[in-house]
Amino acid sequence: MLPSLSERRFLITGGTGSFGQTMVSRLLDAGAAEVRVLSRDESKQDAMRHRLGNDRVRYYIGDVRDYDSVLKAARGMEFVFHAAALKQVPSCEFFPLEAVRTNVLGSANVVDACERVGVETLVLLSTDKAVYPVNAMGMTKALMEKVAQAHSRNNASARTRVCCVRYGNVMYSRGSVIPLFIDQILRGGLPTVTDPTMTRFLMSLPESVELVEHAFVFGQPGDVFIRKADACTIGDLATALCNLFGVPAKFNVLGIRHGEKLYETLASREELAFAEDLGDFLRVPVDSRDLNYSLYFEEGDVEHGGLADFHSHNARRLSVPEIESLLMTLPEVRAQVQAAAAAVVTT
Ligand SMILES: O=c1ccn([C@@H]2O[C@H](COP(=O)(O)OP(=O)(O)O[C@H]3O[C@H](CO)[C@@H](O)[C@H](O)[C@H]3O)[C@@H](O)[C@H]2O)c(=O)[nH]1
């Protein structure tokens, strides 16, 4: 999917995370001349340095909240992927201003630094929680999208092409529900399900990386790219995992947590009225009108009435066997299921 990248230079903010590590490997494989990782945690960088052992990867300690640290890392780079964020819904509810500082002001720093040093393309990673947001994480990611779009709308001669991508839950990402449920099952406990009827979109890490690559190759300034995905209920997810590990499908119900929604929306009906359907992806272009709306009178109004939002309650619903098959495509899950099965055989 990626074109040849020899002599091309990349920066990934939050580059030690699940997305960042996968993207770094893809860029190295595609021949990138240099990949910089900007992040706060020196021990994660050190572990990655030892694991990769590749001198085309350079590590920058810094924080997107600190403009100078972003500027230093962005200097000389042609392409930037902005993945650094505060992402946990409940913790952002308790510390909303921290989410504003990282997700909104930090993202604005990234946009400004890229423009200042003449980065060619910047792709910012957003989430379905940014659509009709009810929690601080989603609200701040929605504002991040607005910052990115305003950059494109307000700067006709912008040097940096800025696009966003939006996706749902990445299966087995750090701190997410799938490794948690597996851990609970392996310890002999019951998965703690918030609400069995709650639905989420499911996407693999390679699919999320593919979406970013698509935006990187095809995006126009201000675009938001969305990857279409199937969804499942959390009750079915817990059941599928219990089945895979050969334990009775039972769980404890916790109740919905701070800031959570029963379902997530990947694209609103307002966006779908303008979106371009690209098969696996949707492209939502920026509304590039200025504030003189009367100038656009003849373009008329777009009809939103017949459209429905694209959300995880009306997306294709995966059955329990389908979830089991999907989970077994994840190397981490496969390895844990096989290890558990082998342990049963030897006892
Ligand atoms: O003990 C638990 C923890 C979570 N859940 C449920 O599992 C689902 C997924 O939870 P989790 O894996 O914590 O993800 P989300 O809170 O949905 O948020 C994730 O998915 C987003 C995309 O929607 C990303 O933007 C976020 O960074 C990422 O944390 C939700 O319905 C939770 O209610 C449980 O049932 N039990």
UniProtKB/TrEMBL annotation:
InterPro entries: CapD_C, NAD(P)-bd_dom_sf, Polysac_CapD-like, Polysaccharide_Synthase-Rel
Domain annotation Polysaccharide biosynthesis protein CapD-like: ranges: 11-284
GO MF terms, alphabetically ordered: UDP-glucose 4-epimerase activity
Domain UDP-glucose 4-epimerase CapD C-terminal residue range list: 287-334
Catalytic activity: UDP-alpha-D-glucose = UDP-alpha-D-galactose
Swiss-Prot/TrEMBL GO biological process terms: lipopolysaccharide biosynthetic process
Protein family (similarity comment): Belongs to the polysaccharide synthase family.
Signal peptide location: none
Known EC number: 5.1.3.2
Top-level class of the enzyme under EC nomenclature: isomerase
Protein name: UDP-glucose 4-epimerase
UniProtKB keywords: Isomerase, Lipopolysaccharide biosynthesis
